[in-house]
Amino acid sequence: MELRVISAGTEIIDDLVKKCSPHFKQSGYSDITVQASVIENTCSSANGDNVDWDGNNNGGSTESNTGGNTKGSTESSTSGSTGSKTEGSTEGNTGGSTEGSTGSSTGKNTGDNTGVSVGVNLGLGEVLNGIFKVINGVANTALSALDACVNIVIRTLKDVFDVVGNLILVLQVALNNLVSGLGSLFVRLVACIIKIAVCVLGLPGDSAVRAKGWNARFGVEGELSVDATAEAYVKLFGLVNAKAELDGYIKIISGGKEIEKTSGSINIVLNRVNTLCDYITNYKQISKETVTQTFVIMTTVAASISNSRKTNFWQ
């Protein structure tokens, strides 16, 4: 029998896209299966570039990975240091329980009750554990999110939104290891897009997004009224100057150069975060297509980081 070498990034793409796409389609979102090959081709340029996403040699800050956003917001104190303290202490210790129906508890219980084992539910057990548990400074929040990603059984669109909410918290750690604050920006961007889609536009998703405390899970303190505008959420999540914040990180990473001067997994990740910034800048245009493209971006970031680590290839 012929052996085929499969990258961990490809496995992540296959599992996320194939298992989540049907539930997007059933709820009137676009079909993302057609994007799987595009994502794979994009992420191939990251293969084995061996960027230190683990935070061992590039000054990755343990503080920035203790559960939230140590990167302060220039326009809103609600997503600054207070946010990181809340997520680092309260959420870090309650990720498995407070996360409740949207997190690791439901994922594990559902999996156990149906006899579905770890790594079969979403198919990411070996891959995600192998990639992210070696990263420095992983706090309880990220580990709880990792467990949830591994154990969630995808049966509904709500489960898909659970995967997004948990996986971005895992990715936050790796991105913050590249430059402190980048992961926190990434998390707030994705969370804000979801918040606007569900709470302002009323698009199909997960009712838990409207619940008190959902914002805090992503390092954002404060709640808004049920009739809040998209603009209000952009301010609450500290994203009015998101593009400028990202430009600052790009200069740090590239040594004062522009994003075009980066390559491999770093270039892929920065370009995707830049696209998320564009979505927030043009928040009035957020739509169902924005939601699915945000899912594609999250998948691309995860697969790129995976491919970047040259040991992550299976036969």
What does this structure look like?
This protein is mainly α. It has one domain (6-314). It is 54% helix and 1% strand. The protein has helices spanning 8-26, 36-43, 81-94, 104-113, 125-132, 140-151, 157-178, 182-200, 230-236, 242-254, 264-281, 288-308; strands spanning 6-7, 313-314. It has a two-stranded antiparallel sheet. Helix 1 runs antiparallel to helix 2 (36-43) and helix 8 (182-200) packs parallel to helix 11 (264-281). It starts with 5 loop residues before the first strand and ends with a strand. The relative contact order is 0.18.
Please sum up the structure shown.
With 315 residues, the chain is mainly alpha-helical. The protein has twelve helices and two strands.
List keywords for this structure.
single chain, 315 residues, mainly alpha, two-stranded antiparallel ribbon, 54% helix, 1% strand, disordered N terminus
Mean pLDDT: 75
Q: Major sheet, described briefly?
A: 2 strands, antiparallel
The DSSP helix count reads 12
Structural class: mainly alpha
For the terminal residues, how far apart are their CA atoms? Answer: 12 Å
Radius of gyration: 18 Å
Tell me the domain tally. 1
**Helix content bin:** 40-55%
Q: What best-fitting shape do the alpha-carbon axes yield? A: globular
Spatial order of strands in the largest sheet: 1-2
The portion of residues forming beta strands comes to under 5%
The SSE order reads EHHHHHHHHHHHHE
List low-confidence stretches. 1-5, 57-123, 311-315
Counting DSSP E segments of at least 2 residues, the number of strands comes to 2
